[in-house]
Design brief:
Blueprint lengths: L2 H56 L19 H5 L1 E6 L7 E2 L2 E2 L2 E2 L2 E2 L5 E4 L4 E4 L2 E14 L6 E9 L4 E9 L7 E12 L4 E8 L6 E3 L5 E10 L3
Antiparallel strand pairs: 1-3, 1-14, 2-12, 4-5, 6-7, 7-12, 8-11, 8-13, 8-14, 9-10, 9-12
């Protein structure tokens, strides 16, 4: 066999390897894209489900006067409520520092399921089960008088002071309509008795902007939990 034949064989083998490598690379990219799309779709479904849950919480029962609450839940909602928590803001004033929240009462219960504990003096929502959690927040702000262009950031931290979610709201000058911002994430892992707390940071005072308390809050939902004794 001549040297030309050997070179031809080697070139053919190299091309074959390159084609296989290209195919593997394309396959890997497509698989990664598919997983990303699937993850986004799953998170979106959680967000829509959580929004529906929150919207149902906010419906007023005319027989209960000013109290906000659920309409009568069906018998299959126990598991959902056990793993679900929703808190709303307690103060319409926008200022730097820790955010404080409150649950919404309905019937004999409230919107913090048994899978959570809220420490009101710290503004901290504690999880009672290790696992991954969906975290969602919505801020609704209105200008009450001659507002300048501003921005604020609501940051959720765990007990180790690690950021879990950051939500920035851009506030245009002299804006008449409410400004609504929604943010969400999936927290891959929270230990039992860990939790989240939120802080607001602003570059300047936002005294002419106010939070709508009925439309500003955050929710958590257990995605996948681990039972531990």
């Amino acid at each position: 066999m001549s040297s030309t034949d050997l070179e031809s064989l080697e070139t053919g083998a190299a091309r074959s390897r390159c084609r296989r490598m290209d195919a593997c690379l394309v396959g890997s990219v497509l698989a990664l894209f598919a997983l990303t799309v699937a993850g986004f779709a799953l998170a979106l479904l959680f967000a829509l489900g959580l929004k529906t849950e929150v919207d149902s919480i906010k419906k007023r029962d005319v027989h209960d006067g000013p109290a906000l609450g659920f309409q009568h839940a069906d018998t299959g909602s126990g598991y959902k409520m056990q793993n679900f928590a929703y808190m709303r803001a307690t103060n319409s004033e926008v200022k730097q520092g820790a955010m404080l929240w409150e649950s919404i009462s309905y019937g004999n219960g409230n919107t913090v399921g048994p899978g959570y504990t809220y420490k009101s003096n710290q503004g901290k929502l504690i999880v009672e089960r290790e696992g991954s959690y969906f975290l969602y927040t919505q801020l609704n702000l209105s200008c009450v008088y001659q507002c300048a262009e501003e921005s604020l950031t609501l940051t959720f931290l765990n007990q180790d002071n690690n950021e879990q979610l950051s939500c920035t709201v851009k506030l245009p000058a002299k804006h008449r309509d409410p400004v609504v911002r929604k943010c969400w994430t999936v927290i891959p892992h929270l230990e039992k008795k860990n939790g989240v707390m939120a802080r607001i940071t602003t570059a300047t005072s936002l005294k002419n902007w106010q939070l709508d308390l009925n439309s500003s809050g955050f929710g958590m939902f257990l995605v996948d939990g681990i039972e531990k004794e």
